Amino acid sequence: MANLEVRAICVFCGASTGSDPLYARAARELGTLMATQGITLVYGGGNAGIMGTIANAALKAGGEVIGVIPDYLVEREHGHREVTRLDIVDSMHERKRRMFDLSDGFLSLPGGVGTLEETFEVITWKQLGMHAKPIVILNTKGYWTKLDEMIEATIEHEFAAPPTRELYSLADTPKEALDRLRAMGTSAAPSSSARL
Asked: Is the pLDDT of residue 185 over 70?
């Protein structure tokens, strides 16, 4: 199985910094690593919270940063005017589709319900066979552990098939997250006949 050449990664993350400085620290480290490895950051286009932290770190390290933001969120999420490219779109649906099209893989950092929804959507699309791009979740300070347990519960209670756990991978550090994205390669998604 050939490994995926990762040129651009879509990062889902919050417009807040959260309750622990570790979240912002991990975002800065990830943004710096992506830039130094020549990986384009595709993200939600904001300059607030974790979004702004990762974008600024990547820019500071000389990386390319593409932001995608709906016009009605430019003020609320402080649309980042210093990124390499800022695409202003009409809707959240268009934002997510554009981010998907621009990216070779997905990486979720801590965030709120919007980040949860974005993460679940790309996992669901992969389950349905709509893409085979790698999905990695950066589990800083165990933030995503309960989500992982919830997915395990869907399998245990037979609302989802066992291959569901192979749709994504958890990582503890930014370096591990990037390594896992590459290692996951372009393996095919489980059959769309798997229960949702």
From this structure: no
